[in-house]
Design goal:
heterotrimer; A mainly alpha; B alpha+beta; C mainly alpha; A: mainly alpha; Cytochrome C Oxidase, Chain A; 20 helices; disordered N terminus; C: 2 domains; 81% helix; transmembrane (chain B); Cyt_c/ubiquinol_Oxase_su3 (chain B)
Chain lengths: 615, 263, 98
């Protein structure tokens, strides 16, 4: 991983003024430079995303052709994980469960959030606010390495006796309290315990990272950059960081309590009279599994906004840039972000309608769940109306950003029936739920992730990514995402349960929709193939992509484009100041259709046109 | 490359970076302990039985005093630094460190006491607590548990105060209970019941915070204090930030003490 | 700078007054826990601890003199921790089969 990254920043080195000689290891591995840490986060999480996607690619085989050996990869699995996990290349239920749990965990906590929040956050936020670095560079390095150790622990857990955690990404108790225990399991080096330890590292890293991002945004905004002049991406990062900061710690305490349950035999989450394998569990009892669910979803729900908010920011940036006009309403956008952030903290128990909550409490959560859709719709509306009357540049970042909009729409609207008890009772734990949240987390989040990569790649590396390969990447990705997730909504209505390994009796009643399993699986495999152009494009462009000739290749207005390309240590060659709102595109009376934030009025008026970016 | 506002305050917020950072960190700490306290509330609401005054209140009170004192000495250490009285700073911070170590020592004595204290729940649901009249090894293998039950006034303040300094005197009856009449027995370790699970978890995490605070403060008392010669204001800021963490940890104890010892 | 030192000198007195209050309130809290007030025991204990917390937060941690950014941050944390407590308690009491 690091060798790849070192290449990325070889170019960055070119701009370095060379007065501080730091060793290779301090520059590329234990770096305190926010840009390098951003690349580290991005590359690590893209790798984790690919890995976690691969787990699902294998699971889709089991769902389409239950009990048949997996071609090509089956024997490899058998060799790697032992014949008890994949005898003859057939996926066992345990392996299916652990792949499912790890797919969710890694995708959410170790791929999407680090890429969108920490990867882009580290690279873009200090640049967009005109700061030389993050407020606490060494803390920043510590966050990355805590995250990285968390990833390593998760990866290693596949190879301990009994395999990785199997209790779902939610680790519901009391199942998770007693999973991976007993004969054949190590007391500490077992799947579920390592899951908890890995999560503790990951959470700690996230917390330090969000402290850093918020402090940076509050303290290091450059002269003239008042709150209502901040680019929307910075706003989205700010709200996201607050969600992580305040919602993650209760899960950390819950993880500690589950560790206590597993290591010291306490009963935080185990009720009295619990029977395991036909025997009374040797515990004091008195705990509550509902407590785990509350503490888990107190994070779990804000977590989905942690993923979607940065993508809103990215899409907002790219929309403004490529529609060549200001966002339809900056203020509505920002206040919607804040409202979503605030409300997302008090809707968590809509994941728990089936736990026997009473009517008053469910009403509370239904009302707020419905209310939170208002700012979400406002946000979508702002973006949609921003397209009105624009002469859109259909470059690759814009294609991805445009595709985000309908995916976000489907993901959001399919969520409403799950927010109301009457319909949730029917749809709970079916593939409908999977379809719904994947529309948010897979198509929406990932399309925006790609959009951001294509958009900021020229600034980070000094080279464009290839447009043609980008388009080859875009169309199949967009189509096959829908090929995977739309049929899930259909299957869900037919009552197909979300966690079953081979369908069991449930599939007997869902004969009509079972053929969709093949549609979804082939779409998933096609989606995997569709990522090859991206991987080729990424590495090829790194070394041989078209060179950027201007520091502001997209003719954008925000501050990250005022830096040299790629930015050196300390970012800006001269102190920058901000003179205007973030998206002053197509302002009448100027020769150019964009007025960068860093250009003063006098300068613009006097010259009648923009000066070049180089001072 | 200089990062702005590491020592001086940013004009519009009036704050230097680390102060924003530490308050954000403390906000997340509020939520961390909030998660633990909410677990305590939730489990206690659902509990059929919750022990009262089972911990040694005088010891807890003493530790509370120790932490309160350390809070004052901490703020005095920072104050001295602000007034550029370096030797006073070292003195006050030294006392703070001493208090922190004292707190942890008392805490570990309390933990050890609990590990030698036993509880038995009979099939009838009745609970007997006391000290074993046999070794732990014997207790595990024997069919009968011999236990000296706690006196009725074991929850009294004076009794607990005396028990710190001397073993309770006088003849004591020893109960012999066959194991087949026992539903659940163990010493007072986390798994004994939900109350002890919350007690050990919450105070354990709190103690880890104290330990972390001691490491940081120890650094500023020792090698970190060298910064005074080059940039005393920067050192004052660092000590203020470390102090805010220390105060917060004391603040958590202010809530832990009544919730775990008194209610 | 010297002005800052002057205010600091004035504050030292308040630190020791706070110390006195914290000690007394801790003693009161212990004493109250031996009275039999039923459910009021917990309420009284929490109120006393709350006052102690306010004193420590306000004076020892300088919240009373702190900038508004800090007030917002700590306010946000307290708001959400209360939301967590209240909603958990509410969902405990309002559940089917209770």
């Amino acid at each position: 991983m690091d060798s790849e990254m070192s290449m990325t920043s070889q170019a960055a080195h070119g701009h370095h003024e060379g007065h501080e000689e730091i060793s290779w290891i301090r520059k590329y591995v234990f770096s305190t430079d926010h840009k390098m840490i951003g690349y580290q986060y991005m590359v690590t999480s893209l790798f984790v995303a690919l890995f976690a996607f691969f787990l699902m690619v294998l699971m889709r085989w089991q769902l389409s052709f239950p009990g048949k050996p997996i071609p090509i990869f089956g024997p490899i699995l058998e060799k790697l994980l032992g014949s008890s996990m994949a005898p003859g290349g057939v996926m066992t239920p345990q392996l299916y469960n652990s792949f499912g749990a790890m797919h969710g965990t890694m995708m959410i906590f170790m791929a999407l959030v680090p890429a969108l929040f920490a990867g882009f956050g580290n690279f873009v936020v200090p640049l967009q606010i005109g700061a030389p670095d993050m407020a606490f560079p060494r803390l920043n390095m510590a966050s990355f390495w805590l995250f990285f150790v968390g990833v390593l622990i998760m990866m290693v857990s596949f190879f301990v006796p009994g395999g990785a955690a199997k209790s779902g990404w939610t680790s519901y108790t009391p199942l998770a309290d007693f999973a991976d225990m007993g004969p054949g399991f190590h007391p500490i080096f077992n799947g579920q315990t390592l899951w908890l330890i890995g999560m503790a590292f990951n959470i700690t890293g996230s917390l330090l990272g969000s402290v850093n991002i918020i402090t940076t945004i509050i303290q290091l905004r450059t002269k003239g950059l008042s709150w209502m002049r901040l680019p929307v991406f910075v706003w989205s990062e700010l709200v996201t960081a607050f969600l992580l900061l305040l919602a993650f710690p209760p899960l950390e305490s819950a993880a500690i309590m589950q560790l206590m349950d597993r290591l010291f035999g306490t009963s935080f989450f185990s009720p009295e009279g619990l029977i395991i394998n036909g025997k009374h569990a040797d515990i004091s009892g008195g705990g509550s599994s509902i407590l785990w669910q509350h503490l888990f979803w107190f994070l779990g729900h804000p977590e989905v906004y942690v993923q979607i908010l940065p993508t809103m920011g990215i899409v907002g940036e790219i929309f403004a840039n490529n529609t060549r006009k200001p966002l339809w309403s900056y203020k509505v956008f920002v206040y919607s972000l804040l409202a979503i952030g605030f409300l997302s903290m008090i809707v968590w128990a809509h994941h728990m309608y089936m736990t026997g909550m009473g009517q008053a409490v469910t009403s509370f959560f239904q009302i707020f769940t419905t209310i939170i859709s208002i700012p979400s719709v406002l946000l979508g509306t702002v973006l949609l109306l921003s397209l009105w009357g624009a002469s859109i540049r259909f470059n690759v970042p814009m294609l991805f950003a445009l595709a985000w909009l309908p995916m976000f729409g489907i993901g959001g609207l399919t969520g409403l029936p799950l927010g109301w008890t009457a319909s949730d009772v029917v749809l709970h734990d079916t593939y409908y739920v999977i379809g719904h949240f994947h529309y948010m987390m897979a198509p929406a989040s990932l399309l925006a992730l790609f959009a951001g990569i294509y958009y900021w790649f020229p600034k980070a590396t000094g080279r464009y990514m290839n447009e043609f390969l980008g388009k080859i990447h875009f169309w199949p990705t967009f189509i096959f995402f829908n090929g995977i997730f739309f049929p899930m909504l259909v299957q869900g209505f037919a009552g197909v349960h979300r966690r079953w390994y081979d369908g069991g009796a449930g599939w007997q009643m869902a004969q009509n929709v079972l053929w969709l399993n093949q549609v979804m699986s082939f779409s998933a495999w096609a989606l995997a193939i569709a990522q090859i152009p991206f991987i080729i494009n990424f590495f090829w462009s790194l070394f041989a992509g078209k060179k950027v000739t201007d520091d502001n290749p997209w003719q954008a207005t925000t501050l990250e484009w005022a830096t040299p390309t790629p930015p050196g240590h300390g970012n800006f060659l001269h102190p920058v100041a901000v003179y205007r709102d973030p998206y002053e595109y197509s302002v009448p009376g100027y020769k150019q259709d964009y007025l960068p934030q860093w250009e003063s009025d006098e300068r613009l008026n006097k010259e009648g046109k923009l000066s070049q970016v180089s001072f | 490359m200089e990062i702005p506002y590491t020592v001086t305050a940013r004009p519009d917020t009036g704050l230097y970076n680390a102060k924003v950072g530490i308050w954000l960190f403390l906000a997340s700490e509020v939520m961390l302990f909030g998660g633990l306290f909410s677990a305590y509330i939730f489990l206690r609401l659902g509990a059929t039985h919750w022990p009262h005054h089972i911990l040694n209140v005088p010891m807890g009170l003493f530790n509370t005093m120790v932490l309160i004192s350390s809070s004052i000495t901490m703020v005095m250490a920072w104050s001295s630094l602000k007034m550029r009285q370096f030797s006073n700073y070292r003195k006050w911070l030294g006392i703070t460190l001493f208090c922190g170590v004292l707190f942890l020592s008392v805490k570990s004595v309390e933990y050890k006491d609990k590990f030698h204290h036993y509880g038995i729940i009979l099939n009838s649901g009745q609970e007997i607590t006391g000290h074993l009249a046999m070794t732990e090894e014997e207790a595990i293998h024997s069919d009968v548990l011999k236990i000296k039950p706690d006196p009725e006034n074991a929850g009294d303040f004076l009794f607990q105060l005396k028990s710190i300094f001397s073993k309770p005197e006088g003849e004591e009856k020893v109960l012999e209970i066959p194991k087949k009449e026992i539903r659940w027995w163990s010493n007072f370790v986390p798994k004994y019941n939900t109350y002890l699970a919350t007690y050990f978890t919450m105070t354990g995490i709190h103690a880890l915070h104290i330990l972390g605070g001691l490491l940081v403060l120890g650094y500023f008392w020792g090698p970190g204090a060298a910064l005074y010669r080059t940039n005393p204001e920067h050192l004052a800021n660092r000590v203020e930030v470390a102090g805010l963490f220390w105060h917060f940890v004391d603040l958590v104890w202010i809530f832990l003490f009544p919730t775990l010892y008194l209610f | 700078m010297s002005e800052e030192i002057q205010t600091e000198k004035k504050r030292i007195k308040s630190y020791f007054i706070v110390f006195g209050f914290l000690v007394i309130l801790a003693l009161v809290n212990v004493a109250v826990s031996y009275l039999h007030l039923g459910g009021m025991n917990i309420a009284a204990g929490l109120v006393i601890a709350g006052v102690q917390a306010l004193l420590a937060l306000g004076i020892l941690m300088h919240i009373f003199w702190e900038k508004k950014t800090i007030h917002h941050l700590i306010g946000l944390a307290i708001l959400f921790v209360l939301a967590l407590f209240l909603l958990l308690v509410a969902s405990y009491f309002d559940s089917i089969g209770k």
